[in-house]
Amino acid sequence: MMNIIKPLLISMISTTLLLSANAFADKDKYEAGEKVFKTVCAACHGMAGGMDMSKRIAPPIAGVRKHYLDAYPDEASFIQAITSWLEKQDEAKSLMPGAIQKFKLMPPLAVSKDDAANVAAYIYAGDIEKPEGLDKHMKEMHQKMGANEPQHDMSNMAQHSTGQHKMGHKMSQHRMAPQNMGQGKQMRRGKMMQQLNLSPEQKQKMQQLIQQKQAIIRPLRNQLHQINQSVRQLDTTSADYKQKIFSYADQKAKLIHRMVIEKGEMRMKIESVLSPEQRAKFKQIRQNRKQHN
Q1: Is residue 10 part of a domain?
Q2: Domain count, the chain
Q3: How high is the mean pLDDT of the chain?
Q4: pTM tops 0.70
Q5: Domain around 215
Q6: Measured between alpha carbons, how far apart are the two ends of the chain, in Å?
């Protein structure tokens, strides 16, 4: 009996010590990140100015955190994204084009990779001050973006012939609400997984990759929508109209470039989960779907 209990106790003690060491390491990391943030970042991204953007130098870090969490929900990818941004500020990879338009691109920061990673870990942990009214502001912005989404309603379009009228009526009748479109995608995805005869492990991995893809692509689509809205609101008689058009065109091209890359890389990851036979069937299903659309 002792021969069984003794190794078990040693294993439990070792595990406890390891967990304690990891906990202390995380605490040190967050404390180091908090120190760097308050020294280097808080002057611009702290509480000064509250939610009055006319009094701020940069958006509050709690708002930045929300944008990055939407795109990078797991800690590792979140830290990688923030660290990459702190290493090199690039407008093409920004998740907040509106903030850059208002506050301009932030200047380079002289921080080490370790400090950048610690700051990112501290931000991800979420133990940061949040200006009063931030949640309301974020909710209003989300609702505003949702209200500005095109509805594709054919019933209000001019119809100059009987054929056009019938087509418009038919499309209006069958126009799907956004939530139904999402449900349709889920049904097609479930059917595809069934056709591929995925194992439980493959299904779990595939779902994780699909969620990652959605978290990355959705903010990029939102940014494209914001740019399109901004272009439509431009005054064609203003002196800097052409300059702004070229600027928005450049931003849009960079976003589309990134979306193509992200989709391509994610497709590669998704197909890597499949066996050669499943991969061939997956490509055939995609091809058949394109022919029917």
Answers
A1: no
A2: 2
A3: 75
A4: no
A5: 183-292
A6: 68
